Structures are given as C-alpha cells and as structure tokens.
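Working notes for the structural subgroup meeting. M.R. asked for a predicted model of this chain before we commit to crystallization trials. I am recording the input and output together here so anyone reviewing the notebook later can reproduce the run.

Input as submitted:
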Amino acid sequence: MKSSVAGSLRALLSNLIDYAGLYPPAELPLPIVAERYRGFLASPDAWILNRLVLPAAKRWKFNPATKCGKPIPSKYVSTMRFTLGE
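Returned structure, recorded in token form:
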C-alpha cells in the first residue's frame, strides 16, 4: 500500500524523523524498540523515517538477530556519544 502524500510534501519531509524509543518519554526496552522500528520501516509511511537512535554504549549490545527477528541494516542505526544529563 502506497502512502497518499503529495510528491512535493514527500520530498520536503523524506527521512525527517529519527526513532529514539529508548529515550523519554517512551523509554522502551531495546528488544521492543528494535521490533517497533522494524515495523515502522515496513509501513507505507516508512519514507518519513530516518534512523534508529541508540546511545553509543548500547550500540555494541544491539544484536538485532537475537530476540528481535530480522536484523536492522546498520545504515539505519545512529549512535549518540552523549545524552543530556550525563
């Protein structure tokens, strides 16, 4: 199913949103974050989604093949070296 967004709006908003489900307000566990992100990538509105944001410390613990089904390609994963408040 294709999204019904005008081409000009799609061009403007393409890859606009990074998914940071580990951070407030959601603060979800990593397996759920990976599962949801994979679902969002498979949706008709995936064109607006960019990367999965993880803190650098969790990037190395992130093994999407375990407990999460299919791996998420590394080009979709972004790491943060620091977060506010740390």
